[in-house]
Amino acid sequence: MYEYVYQHRVRYRECDPMGVVYHTHYLDYFEAARTEALRDLGIAYRDIEAGGIIMPVIDLDVQYKRPAHYDDMLDIVTRFETMPSVRVPIAYTVQRTGDADVLATGTVTLCFMDAERRRPTRPPAAMRHTFEQALAD
Amino acid sequence: MYEYVYQHRVRYRECDPMGVVYHTHYLDYFEAARTEALRDLGIAYRDIEAGGIIMPVIDLDVQYKRPAHYDDMLDIVTRFETMPSVRVPIAYTVQRTGDADVLATGTVTLCFMDAERRRPTRPPAAMRHTFEQALAD
Amino acid sequence: MYEYVYQHRVRYRECDPMGVVYHTHYLDYFEAARTEALRDLGIAYRDIEAGGIIMPVIDLDVQYKRPAHYDDMLDIVTRFETMPSVRVPIAYTVQRTGDADVLATGTVTLCFMDAERRRPTRPPAAMRHTFEQALAD
Amino acid sequence: MYEYVYQHRVRYRECDPMGVVYHTHYLDYFEAARTEALRDLGIAYRDIEAGGIIMPVIDLDVQYKRPAHYDDMLDIVTRFETMPSVRVPIAYTVQRTGDADVLATGTVTLCFMDAERRRPTRPPAAMRHTFEQALAD
Questions:
Q1: Which helix (H) or strand (E) holds A102?
Q2: Is D17 on the interface with B (CB under 8 A)?
Q3: ipTM of the complex
Q4: Is the pLDDT of residue B16 over 80?
């Protein structure tokens, strides 16, 4: 398993009249978190697209347990647990920095798709190799 | 079961460099759709909050099957299938208006919460009554 | 001058902890309003892009006078006052439907740009013709 | 004058079908930038609100000069040029990190408002003092 922690400061625009983060913004946090987790592994999503592959989201679920508030600093923990095939499930846990309480958990599944033909495809060899090493650690 | 169709025109700001609706915006469509479905039943969420009850999202899942494009007119079909208890699961299906292909499906579960004490609570009697009638039809 | 009224219902996700619409969302309302104003004139922005022209925003200003609240129904009044040259300034006024108080005013200026070369260009002849007629009325 | 540089990595969800940052997101960058600039001065906006004062945006303008692209690292330079009275104008310049080209400039003017009475008010004494020192440097 490979794990990466991305930090995010809650912004005013993300908070609703209940005074807490509106639920959709966790998915924005997840996008930033997986992008930085991949970068940490040496993979820039920008390069994947430049190579003719896109990675649309095909499935997601989120469980909201406790609210996050304005100006909270959050840890978004991203976990890659399996070798990516055509599908790449990525798991997330959100906590306040320095606090064990879990605010939310979720999974977002991406797939590899040929940008030209808009058909599912296998991950690039370099990416498979990177994941093999990361998951072995 | 009670079903309501909400229509939405896809906006430029909702589309990403793949030229399709970015996945998080479907959750915005779902919010508008359930609000209008409740209004169609005679329930304004604004009044629920004025009565001291808030309805945070506690769980959601979405399955993305086909992309929506800029300027598409979408039908967001909202279905209430069960009597609301503390939890209110609401199901959604997204299609292009006049087209049988399903673009996405999902479920967003809200809960009734006492706004003051931030504790789960039972739905207001008037709302239970409205749902009983709607689900009986 | 050509004027068009677009209506929008304020959504929960657009409201902030002050209980009012967060300022950036007025720009989303403006995008929807100008798109529908153009459609009312017979011009689909989707077709402009299909013709190899894009219309990026190059300048904007907004003045916020009174807050809008959750579930308010808003009139976004869009005005085209001058023939589009390379630049297309569009003016907006936001009011609650049926209420004379002005909540916000603003201007968003787009420009015509050749999509391939990313250089300013003149508006398509059909669009100039449409505007000539609309502004003459 | 007091100046602060906030860095932001452009996210996929912020980019549109033209492949560039959609114009409204610069205002989100400005919010994060001024919040961190104030924090750098020792002022947490969260504390201002806890003290019964809110700071709504009353006016803004933005000039877009060059596009930002997906995954670009941006410097958002925030400048406080005048002592805050009831109004607080804050100026911004956006550049790619390490690049002199200006992508966008803008000004967002906030005002101090009594949260309870929703009336303009003077800035807290501590904040005036902080600004006096910062602007003197």
A1: strand A102-111
A2: yes
A3: 0.96
A4: yes
Using the beta-carbon criterion (under 8 Å), do A63 and B59 form an inter-chain contact? Answer: yes
C64 and chain D in contact, CB less than 8 A: yes
CB contacts of D70 in chain B (<8 Å) are 17
Give the tens place of pLDDT for each residue, C101-132. Answer: 999 999 999 999 999 999 999 998 888 888 88
How far away is chain A from the Cα of D9, in angstroms, using its nearest Cα? 9
Q: How many whole angstroms from its chain centre is CA D112?
A: 15
Tell me the count of C-D CB pairs closer than 8 A. 50
d(CA D58, CA D112): 10
Which tokens is B95 given? 């299609």
B131: three-class secondary structure by DSSP: helix
Q: Is A16 on the interface with C (CB under 8 A)?
A: yes
The CATH class that applies to domain A2-136 reads: alpha beta
Tokens (6 digits) for A42: 């040496």
Cβ contacts of C16 on chain A, cutoff 8 Å: 12-13, 15-17
Map out the domains of chain D as residue ranges: 2-136
Contacts with D13 from chain A: Cβ below 8 Å: 28, 31
> Which residue in B has a C-alpha nearest to residue C54's C-alpha?
B12
Active site residue C16: yes
- Say how many C-beta atoms besides its own lie within 10 A of residue B30's C-beta: 25
Counting as low any pLDDT under 70, the low residues of chain C are: none
Report the residue of chain C nearest D114, measured CA to CA: C18
Q: Who among D56, D58, D64 is closest to C18 (CB)?
A: D56
Residues whose CB falls within 8 Å of the CB of residue A70, separated by 6 or more in sequence, listed in order: A10, A11, A12, A15, A19, C17, D46, D49
CA distance C76 to C8: 8
pLDDT at D134: 87
Residue pair A58/A107 in contact (Cβ under 8 Å)? The answer is no
3-class state of residue A31 by DSSP: helix
Query: Can you tell me the distance from the alpha carbon of A11 to that of C23, in angstroms, rounded to the nearest whole number?
Result: 13
Which residues partner with B80 through β-bridges?
Answer: B2
pTM of structure? 0.97
